[in-house]
Amino acid sequence: MAKTKDRTNRGTKGGRDEAPRRTNRIIAHQAKCFKISSSRRFHAATAVLLLVLILLLVPVFYPQKFTPDVESARINGADPVRLSRVLDFLDNFVCQYKPTHTHSIGKDNGDKIDIPGYCHPRLASSPQNRTQFVSPSNRPMKHVQPITSLFSLEHSITWWRDTLSHRQTTDKVEGGELVMRLPRPLQIWDLDALRDEFIRTNFLGLYSGSSAMNRSKHVARHKESSNPLDSGAYLAVYLLRMLHGSQLHPNHLKDQCGTETDVCMNTTENHVNEVDSGVRWVDTSSAFAERTKLLTEYLAILPTYADRIISSSGDINLHEHPITWNETILASLFPKYTHTFNLILNYQKMVQSEYDALRALSFDEFGKNVNFTEYTGMRVNVLSRAFSVMVSDDDVGPSWTNTNHSQSLSHEVESYETSNFGVRIYSAGTTEASGEFKFRSMCPLLDMYNSHPNPNVLWKYDSTTSSYVVHAQREGIPSGHTIIVSYGKYTEGHLFAKYGYVNGDGSSQTEVGLNVFHRIMGDVGLSTQYSPLPFDMWDYKKNRKTVSSTHHIASMERRTLEIQSKELLRYLMFDDGHEECIQFQNHNTTFSDHQKLKLLKFQHLKRLANVGEAWIVRLPPRDPNARPIQHGTNVSSNKRGGDTKVGINAKRILSLCRLLSLTVDDIGGHAITYLRDGLSGDDSTSSSSVYPHFRVEKYENTLEYRSLMCIVRLTDVALKRYGHFTEPNGHDEPKRAHSREWTAWYIRDGEMRLLKILRQTAASEAMKLKVRTHLSHEKIVMREMPCPIDSSLPMLQIQTNS
Question: Basic and acidic residues bias: where (predicted)?
């Protein structure tokens, strides 16, 4: 018991001393654990912060690839203020358009055409490239993000979400989806322009009210031909009127002249003074003001003449257009009288002639408010941006700006004396009107999409809503790709002359003209937009109303035709197939069969001289399957298809060379009768033919040989016009793709390639024919040098019925 007690007592005493020590040990242990826990928490927090920082920075240094497709290097002098305005336009003008009030327009159907605009939620804006592209995120990305937004939590979350779900590579707009819808109130038609009171009274001679009976009718016409102006000229005037009207708005004055030069303020003050003095250039009516206000943002972003000028050679300007070039620049890039040179020159002549005609009829109003460069800038906008629209009498779209609902569309259109109005669209092979009319429309946003023969969207005019709708092609539009439309099937030279660009990938046709001895004065490639000659002197189609037929040919036009007739003799001076030159004497009264045939050739030649299609040769696209360039890739000539087997459309020029090469022994000895019947027959005016002019078909091998060698002769002359560009160093490709120099090189190279292929093909076929059929020399005589001009000059004085 004692031991137990002692043990107990010791335990009691020891326990009394041990308690504080145990407490201290516990406290020390807890303190140690707390230190360890705090350290671990610190390290853990640091690790978390580093991880968050990494997660935030990875999207910054590895951004999603949604860069727009057009090279940033192509931007010339981007203005931040203007870029902001373009960005706002791309994001909102069409995409966010909401009707202010619904207009029920139409006859009995009550169709409502003031509908909301629409843009696909995946569309993003690129103000630098003035277009839209498909964002790689399903969240709409309105524009290329500024650097500050790249550090945002929202951006990082979106990046990781899209990365983990692989949306960077799989996101796209699906085939058939609606990409954009442009409602009628935002469209500006040439029909709207022709209804404008200023244009009707000053340029079309259509007066309203009591003054109509007391005023003579004056219609704007081209001075040299008396042809009426194209409706596109009036659309340009209408746009300028609205633009000047928008600049009179106080807020717009502050925005424009506060940031530009004194020229802007002086010009605007002139507008104000002239309006105050009663000049009607700027309309102050409520309807015009409302329309102007609605379209102000669009008018403000349209390129001006100054926007299209580049500061130095080699620079790239997306707005540059050859119509603004001076003669020196044009001749340095395209040799005189080559095909594209002529196209550009005729567009320039058209614009100058239009301005002169408008200024002559309205000097105090139009002439004092609009100078030539300003008109040119807006006319280029119409040429390069307007889209076609087919409507009928029952379409409600034309009713949008119509104040006279009692007048039918047919009757209204026929009252406008323009080169392209009063013209019904006829069905092929018939003379029955289809009841449709072809108008032009300025289409905001739609006109900012780039064009390619193989687009990723399809656009059309929807007559049920009077809106333009754009749908994705069947294969869809991948993320990062810009929206690409098609302006139509144009050749390389015509695409450049009208729109101011080429795709540069061999996706378009190439064409040249073989009118090497004369200048075409009728169909100069601009259809009925412009011609130096009256339309009814060369356009023989029955299905077109020729409004200039009531005007007599001026003496200047007669002199033009006389000069042209002398030029045409050069085609007949070779007397192919004849050992001796065919001689004509002054005051001849009787003619040999050889002379009669040559006179008949001359008559046919004069009929065909101004029909452009008779002299044109086209080469199919070098790479018809080319796709629009995406992701800023450069154009490289070695990526274009090679000179593989190609088919040249040379049927018309071959027919013309058969005409030039005929002898009295051809066509079974009936060549004279054949040509005489061709002049008196109805073939020359048939409306059922795409090419309604007399053709010489293939007959004897000797005639075919001479015809092929005639093509060789014409191509040789055409190639000589390119001068030093045909030399080895003239083929060198400029280093900077899509510069002015590169574009000219690309077009020239294509034209020379066509001519060389045509020459090689014709010469090869002629040689094969000669060897295969053992043609006798006397029937295939081809002269290298022409006969003396004096032997053919008397033909100019001989009556056509001789």
Answer: 1-21
